[in-house]
Design a protein that fits this description.
The complex is a heterodimer of chains A (about 325) and B (about 325).
Chain A (H helix, E strand, L loop, with lengths): L2 E3 H15 L3 E5 L5 H4 L6 H5 L4 E3 L4 H13 L3 E6 L9 H8 L2 H4 L9 E6 L14 H5 L5 E3 L4 H13 L4 E6 L6 E3 L13 E4 L4 E5 L1 H16 L4 E5 L2 E3 L3 H11 L2 E8 L4 H11 L11 E5 L8 H7 L3 H13 L4
Parallel strand pairs in A: 2-3, 2-4, 4-5, 5-7, 6-7, 10-11, 10-13, 13-14
Antiparallel strand pairs in A: 1-8, 6-12, 9-11
Helix pairs in contact in A: 1-8, 4-5, 9-13
Chain B lengths: L8 H26 L14 H8 L7 E4 L4 H7 L3 H8 L25 E2 L7 H14 L5 E6 L6 H12 L4 E7 L2 E2 L2 E2 L20 E5 L3 H16 L5 E6 L20 H9 L2 H11 L5 H23 L17
């Protein structure tokens, strides 16, 4: 199979989907600017023109609403928010309109749009250019939320998001853009709602999202040296969530660590922990659940603080060791 | 066609009938809210009938209309089925939104009403987006956004004017200026209350019309629709009108001190239906016996709608979690 980067996989998918389906178009702030979206939109403007590659004024709310309206009139918009932080301006259109439309009108109309939010943290960008908002969208009925962590899934989940008849929030992380991986040239789908078992293990289940799934695989390698066998699940879909995959793994390992790049409180890791807590597996756990997430703190600017703020493989290693030999008070 | 082009008699009679339909429908709803039969919050359109009527009379079935919390008049004017609207107000499963939307969320996709939103200004950018679709698809349909004067307080209104003018999209912004944003007079909300002038900085034509004159509204809308269809871009039309009842519900709100009785009486004397009837009778287009027949027919229609609604089933428990997603 062919090896390409994560951002190339996105770019190729956009080319192929726009070529295959006239209803698909790309709209948002900076869609023609590598400064905003890296290499993900290369050559789209030249190939498809300004009617289908629409770089927009800085009007997040109106452009998101326009995407909803375009979807209602038969198009399949891919709406880009090049820094997830900017999406707050568009929350009304996403939460009140896109998410509710199908239910509110008794299932007669749907809003098939892909809301592509890019996490662009690090580089001392501070609190308004760094946020990972998957938990907020996961909370809202009517939205699906995906977070691919590999080039293969970046392509397959983007195809699924575009083909889905509902609004799908597709979240990627610029820290993944240079990761290389096997990607078929032809179009294929990765089902929304299915996680992936990345590594088999015996002693502990690590459920991780997006970039943290990559870190979890590294952590599992490190733990192996200490003879700890970690099973790694890449969640891929925040909503709907692949409960069966998580439950089957925890049934076997009886320990759970959840690693997510969002904030800890009321977050994705909290939801997964609660699902286990509400299930029959609660009594079978050998140790309390550990969450590896951001502290409840806005993103700092200083590199010295960023290095503590963002979690990595070593934090997952520590989390796993806590569930195995930790001293819980 | 110029704004002055003649309007066929049949179109005028159709507008008259539509206005009477809205009035009688809404008066019935007011009674049903008062008696407690209807619970969903209803924002009545009484007094504003000429706006939806005149605008929708200039549209085709494949043109889209996006509505607001004050949605009943738009729905009926675009050709929606009154029975299914009444059933939605009873929140029954045979309602136009299957009992999931209530008064503020009504739809009739077949006749070009893809929905209405209770978030002020919420559907303005959505109408722009449908117009964007029409432009990409090279269809000559247009999209209409109805909103009140309160929506002009929202930032997304200006973003939408800018983007639609920038891309010359076939969208018509219809501001129904009924002088009140819920309880607040517009002069307490907007620094310059000449809303039509807000089009100018976006290089868009803006005009103000008498929103109680269905013919004037129709002429303005026809002009805007034709230029939008021809690719000449959006327009803003401010229709000056007045809602007789309060912001929500059947009362007149005089006792609450929100507005004066004199003001209400003045606007009731400028009743849009009476105005059109006088014009049509004077021109010999409508006779008194025709008029009586229209009222009788429509009163019957409204009773049929109530019977249809009351006979409809309630949504069932299994419907609660149905349709969160399209499968």
């Amino acid at each position: 199979m062919r090896v390409i980067s994560y951002s190339k996989a996105i770019n190729e998918t956009l080319h192929q989907m726009m070529e295959r389906d006239d209803r698909v178009f790309l709209i948002g702030q900076g869609v023609t600017s590598p400064w905003y979206v890296g290499a993900t939109t290369s050559d789209l403007l030249q190939r498809f023109g300004t009617q289908r590659v629409i770089d927009t004024p800085v009007s997040e709310c109106a452009i998101t609403g326009a995407s909803v309206g375009a979807a209602l009139a038969g198009m399949r918009p891919i709406l880009v928010h090049p820094r997830m932080d900017f999406i707050y301006y568009a929350m009304d259109q996403i939460a009140n309109h896109a998410a509710n439309w199908h239910y509110m009108f008794g299932g007669q109309l749907s809003v098939p749009m892909t809301i592509w939010g890019i996490i662009n943290r690090g580089g001392e960008q501070a609190a308004q250019h760094s946020q990972a908002l998957q938990a907020i969208f996961g909370h809202l009925p009517g939205l699906k939320v995906v977070m691919p962590s590999t080039p293969y899934d970046a392509k397959g989940l983007l195809v699924s998001s575009i083909e889905d008849d509902n609004p799908v929030v597709y979240i990627d992380d610029r820290w993944l853009y240079e990761i290389m991986g096997d990607v078929p040239e032809e179009l294929y789908t990765v089902p929304i709602g299915k996680g992936a078992l990345r590594r088999r293990g015996r002693d502990v289940t690590v459920v991780a999202t997006s970039y943290m799934a990559q870190e979890a695989i590294k952590a599992a390698g490190i733990l192996e040296e200490d003879d700890i066998s970690a099973e790694v699940i890449d969640l891929r879909s925040i909503k709907p969530i692949d409960e069966d995959l998580i439950f089957d793994s925890v049934r076997k390992t009886r320990r759970l660590v959840v690693a997510d790049g969002g904030w800890k409180t009321y977050g994705v890791a909290a939801e997964i922990s609660a699902k286990i807590g509400e299930s029959g597996l609660f009594n079978r756990l050998k140790a309390p659940i550990t969450r590896v997430c951001l502290p409840d703190v806005p993103a700092p600017a200083s590199l010295a603080l960023e290095q503590i703020y963002y979690k990595n493989a070593m934090d997952i290693v520590d989390g796993v060791k806590m569930t195995i030999g930790g001293d819980y008070v | 066609m110029s704004a002055e082009a003649p309007i066929p008699d049949a179109a005028l009679l159709g507008m008259h009938q539509n206005m009477v339909r809205i009035r009688k429908f809404e008066e019935k709803v007011a009674d049903l809210v008062t008696s407690g039969e209807i619970i969903t919050p209803c924002h009545l359109y009484i007094g504003q009938e000429a706006v939806a009527t005149g605008v929708c009379a200039s549209l085709r079935v494949d043109d889209y209309v996006f509505s607001t919390h004050r949605s009943h008049g738009h729905y009926l004017s675009k050709g929606g089925d009154g029975k299914r609207l009444m059933a939605e107000l009873y929140c029954r499963a045979n309602g136009c939104s299957r009992g999931k939307g209530g008064s503020m969320h009504i739809t009739s996709p077949d006749i070009g009403l893809p929905g209405s939103s209770a978030i002020v200004a919420g559907t303005i950018p959505i109408a722009v987006g449908s117009a964007l679709s029409f432009s990409i698809q090279k269809r000559d349909s247009v999209s209409v956004s109805f909103f009140g004067d309160g929506a002009v307080d929202e930032g997304v209104f200006y973003e939408s004017l800018n983007f639609s003018a920038l891309k010359r999209l076939p969208v018509i912004f219809i501001c129904e200026n009924n002088l009140y944003s819920t309880h607040m007079p517009i002069s307490d909300c907007i620094s310059d209350t000449q809303i039509y002038k807000k089009a100018e900085p976006f290089n868009m034509p803006g005009l103000r019309v008498d929103g109680n004159d269905a013919i004037e509204v129709f002429r303005a809308a026809r002009w805007a629709v034709e230029r939008a269809r021809a690719g000449e871009g959006p327009a803003l039309i401010e229709c000056m009108t007045y809602r007789w009842r309060g912001h929500v519900g059947p009362n007149y709100d005089i006792d609450k001190g929100l507005r004066s009785e004199d003001e209400l009486k003045y606007w009731m004397s400028r009743c849009p239906i009476k105005f059109l009837e006088e014009t049509l009778i004077e021109r010999g287009v409508l006779s008194l016996s025709d008029k009586r027949q229209v009222y009788e027919k429509i009163e019957e229609e409204v009773e049929d709608a109530v019977a249809f609604a009351k006979g409809g089933p309630f949504p069932e428990e299994r419907d609660l979690s149905k349709d969160v997603f399209k499968m």
